[in-house]
Structures
1.
Amino acid sequence: MEYKTYMADRVKTMKGSAIREMFKRMADPEIISLAGGNPASELFPGDELSKIAGKILMTNPTLALQYGTTDGYPKMRDCARQRAEKVNSVGANDAILIMTGANQGIDLTAKALLNKGDKVIVESPSFIGSLNAFRTYECGLVGVTVEDDGMSMEGLEDALKNNDGVKFIYTIPTFQNPTGATMSLEKRKKMLELASKYDVLILEDNPYGDLRFSGEDVPTIKSMDTEGRVIYTGSFSKILSPGMRLGYIVAPSELAEKIEMLKQVNDVHTPMLTQLMCVEFMKKYDIDSYIAKNRELYGKKCAAMVSAMEKYFPKGKVKWVTPEGGIFLWCECPTITDITPVVDRCLEKKVAIVPGSNFATDIFAPSNMFRLNYSSATIENIEEGIRRLGEVLTELL
Ligand SMILES: Cc1ncc(COP(=O)(O)O)c(C=O)c1O
């Protein structure tokens, strides 16, 4: 049976994430993955959470196992508010909704805002999950180059000037996925100014903001928003556990009301058990000291990766900027146009990296870039993975 003819236009042009495809091949335990976006599992508070989950199910099974409210368990909303207020990112007219991961918040915001043919300005490259969410609403994606200090503001102004129907700018200003770049304060202010001038909204996605291991924090765009133009999304995935699927959105009440209705249709509510577990975890333990341990580990892993890159990569053939936080390192190979043979050869040598084309607005355009992740592999595997990658680069560049 040929299913293509039955499929909606909105899914016809979607391409699966190369990362997910790679995961299928990565069942091989010998493969060293520098590909995914997984946080370090060695620090997961498994013991603490198993005791908490057991206690919740023993003492309050009805609350944990019954339907909950769509906007989130109130104490979980308080936890999300606490995180967002820590970075001054809750405005006077904002509501907070608990989402089944930030992914859902991004998807439902797009669903609430986009008509077919509207445009979204995105960083190029950007997070594939968000790009794919936007694509399903049949909108146009306008990519703007990411520089070492974040999205190009000249590029943004050109994009706003030359495109009708732009609804919002999607940005990951801190430790961007995939580039690891952090937008400067000046650029954040400029983005707000341009959004106001061209009357568009901003969707600020900040799942990595807590993971700084060097340099100084930069205020969120949301914290400087005086017009209610910024919708902010945060996540517990990289600071507690991605499997618990806890994220949140801070949005003006009028918009939040619509997003809540869409969530009702989508999944009714985020699982109560993981919401209750997070609330108890934050009550019993200091989540900031848990995050601090992660930050320290990521700083060490990043340093190990960079020193292995300096040792094993062919000199002068690969460019990168060392990030100050987050979980990704972005590399460019200026002497070639397409990184695909490198990625394929790496898989033969049992190391996985992600080609840059995966994060582009035009997924069919070749890319000479690739993304590395340093949070999930062990330091030994990071060194061995980079050694193998270095051999491939030396062979093919
Ligand atoms: C930039 C960015 N936004 C959002 C998400 C989704 O996070 P969550 O697990 O909360 O859905 C990710 C996950 O990797 C991400 O990199």
Note: The chain has two domains: 4-44+289-396, 66-284.
2.
Amino acid sequence: MSSSSKCPGCGAASIFQHRYVDAGSGRGPQLLPDLGGVGSYGTFTVFVCTDCGLTRFYAEPLTRAQVQQSPDWTRVS
Ligand SMILES: [Zn+2]
């Protein structure tokens, strides 16, 4: 996970983060489905630059481990 204190979009040092954001709320796309059981989703850490609005999503470590072990996810590289 990137922990850079500068925004890669505008270079500002105005980054905020929120951890354990659910990746499948039922009101939007299911971004990390089928992890941790049927109907379960992975979680993100979300970084937002308050200067330009660039928003980045990084899968949490547990979610990344679940992706590697899930038969529903196909490795492409
Ligand atoms: Zn920015």
Note: The chain has one domain: 15-69.
